[in-house]
Amino acid sequence: MNDLIPPSPGALAGRVVLVFGAGASGPGWSNGKASAVAYARAGAKVACVDHQRERAEETVSVIGKEGGEAIALTADVAVNDQVAAAVQATMAKWNRLDVLHNNVGISLFGGPVDLSEADWDRSMDVNLKSVFLACKHVLPIMERQGRGVITNISSILSQRVSWYDQIAYYASKAAVDHFTRAIAVKYARKGIRANAILPGLMNTPLLYQNPSIVGAHGGVVFMTQQRDAASPTGKQGSAWDVANAAVFLASDAASYINGVLLPIDGGLINLQATAAAPK
Q: Which residues constitute the domain of residue 188?
């Protein structure tokens, strides 16, 4: 369980949050799962969406055991009709939608020569088109309400190049950043805020499910050691670092924070990028 400082109880009381990517790909806490639970702990009702229903149901089960309210939904975030259906189901349940949290992302390895066109397209669909589709269906609801918050999970790799060979990930996350800023400016006078969280080196289940990342370090043990060493703090962050930031950005305490790209990285973004894995 979470051993970090929990969100302020009641900070989001009465709010409805839609989290795309609310499941975890393996044991432990993913950014999306932790964020969904953190929203619920702050008093929100949470629609938990994942492309595998059992993952969404696991997150809902955690929220339910803690006395919160949540529903599990299934969607491929790159398919317009499925995204629309998830939004509609959330509205049908609670008749409002206050926070949209876009968490889904994939990191496929390869440069412009060796990366397949299909993998490039899939990266753009999952990492970028998903944000576009979710906003397409949620923004009209928030406009009618006269308020809303959109939080997109990007990466510090939208701003810098690391030792990982993942050009499609870099490009798609950079686009997410600028998309977020454009939305923030366009809808600011309508009571809608949009910000992006840029995680750095995070120790989450998805890391261990990516053979390209593990292979880049020569194994799981080396991966953990090298990623810890690469952080200015000497340790990777956890999903709860992202989750607590997301709750803050969704709360009234952040009411004048709009169009911000917030690194959650222990200061890593301030260091010169390196082209090779740390030893």
A: 16-204+239-261
Return the pLDDT at 7. Answer: 52
Q: Read off the tokens for 219.
A: 């194994």
- How many domains in the chain? 1
Rounded alpha-carbon distances, angstroms, from residue 52 to 18, 33, 125, 131 = 16, 13, 18, 19
Instruction: Evaluate whether residue 144 is within a structural domain.
Output: yes
The Cα–Cα gap between 116 and 247 comes to 37
Alpha carbon distances (Å) from 225 to 147, 174, 235:
44, 27, 9
C-alpha span between 2 and 131 (Å, rounded): 28
Instruction: Give the CATH number, domain containing residue 119.
Output: 3.40.50.720
Interior/surface letters 184-199, b for 16+ CB within 10 angstroms, e for the rest: beebeeeebbbbbbbb
Question: 170 catalytic, yes or no?
Answer: no
Within-domain flag for 31: yes
Tens of pLDDT along 52-102?
999 999 999 999 999 999 999 999 999 999 999 999 999 999 999 999 999
60 occurs within a structural domain: yes
Question: Per residue in 7-30, pLDDT tens?
Answer: 567 899 999 999 999 998 888 899
Tell me, yes or no, whether 220 lies in a domain.
no
Is the pTM here over 0.90, yes or no? yes
Annotated catalytic residue: which of 169, 170, 208, 256? 169
User: What's the number of CA atoms in the CB half-sphere (13 Å) around residue 156?
Assistant: 22
